[in-house]
Amino acid sequence: MPLAPSRLRCRRTPLPARRSAIPLLALLASLLLASSCETNPRASAEDGSSASEPERVPGNAALFSDLDDFTGLPNEPRASATSEFWEHWGDGRAELSGYRVTTARYGEAREGELSLIYVTEPHDRRSWIKDDAAESPDRVEVLKLIRTNTFLTGIYPYSVMSSTFAPVDHWREERFQPVRINLEVQEWCGSVSHRVWPGPDRLRSLRLSYFASEGETLRDVEIPPEALYEDALLIQLRELDSDFQGGGDWEGWIVPELWQLRTGHGPIRAVEARITRSEVRRGGNPVTRFVLDAGDYQRTFDVEREPPRRVLGWTTSTGEEAELIATERLAYWELNRTGDESYREELGLSPLASIPPGTGGCP
Fold first, then answer.
1. Which residue, 293, 268, 238, is CA-closest to 116?
2. Rounded to an integer, what distance in angstroms lies between the CA atom of residue 270 and that of residue 200?
């Protein structure tokens, strides 16, 4: 049950002028500039196809050239992750958990499957994209959390995936403050992509939506310093390497979960909130219960009191309920062959990923 370390340092570049909004023309210009500056090292194979060597994009050829400074990590972390952390999270495997979940959509409860996948990986701080070849001072180890949720709304399916990337060393006031959060939603009406890069006093939001009410927007949004992000709480409340808020309660500002903003069609912003903790029992097991209150929204998390401190379940005032089924530690990226679907069953998930069996063709 563990994973591997790597030491880091950070480079600073001049901070660009603050902007409250960034026109989409600037985005298009940066994309064109990045593509025009890249070389294509691919050579044709003997059969006329492209060579197997993939095109390598330079670490600084990111969508935005100022992410290093925008996310505002200092030159050095306050402290490094402990050896105990790496003994568990440095074993070259990921932690996969399957959950039973009920999701409220269109005023009705929808039964579905949810998974949480935690794994450490190196990122390049100039782009905040995974890069195994990144080197100091630009290499930062992060704990990645992938959350998937699939369910049906009548005839058509929903597929929701969020990704949260949190540096494992102690960089900011609270451990595991995220540097990037992504949300992808696909369903038969259309798709939505929302990406957020948190900074110390503002966030950058890129939302690309099929729906006119949301549109395609790119802007910087000011937030109070040290604001938390609900998407990262499934990492932070596990207290994997230190106590959340030193073992006490918390009060301040939080940016709501991107999926919650999507279903509520609200703007991205920080809201006042508090998190209280208590010691309770769940199914006879001792757990730490964290309750998030933000206006009329409430979410309750139950976390194992002993390592590995998994999230046993949560409920929200908007109607979502999740309960842990099973957990495995696997190098899941290697389990991509026919027959490896059986590993899903060990997690309590459908081996066919919720897709009903075929009927053998059309009549």
1. 238
2. 13
CB 184 within 8 A of CB 195: no
CA–CA separation, 7 vs 22, rounded Å?
A: 34
Phi, psi of 289 (to 5 degrees): -100, 125
Looking at the chain, how many residues does it have? Answer: 363
Q: Which tokens belong to 212?
A: 């006119």
Structure tokens at 224: 């109070």
Residue 357 reports pLDDT greater than 50:
no
- To the nearest whole number, what is the mean pLDDT of the chain? 84
Count how many Cα atoms sit within 13 Å of the Cα of residue 241 in the half-sphere of its side chain.
22
Chain-centroid distance of CA 212 in Å reads: 26
DSSP 193-225: EEEEEE-SSEEEEEEEESSTTT-EEEEEEE--T
Look at residue 341 in the predicted model and tell me its pLDDT: 93
Amino acid sitting at position 236: Q
> What does the alpha-carbon distance between residue 327 and residue 348 come to, in Å, rounded to a whole number?
9
d(CA 224, CA 254): 9
- Give residue 19's pLDDT: 41
Question: CA–CA separation, 229 vs 299, rounded Å?
Answer: 13
pTM as predicted = 0.82
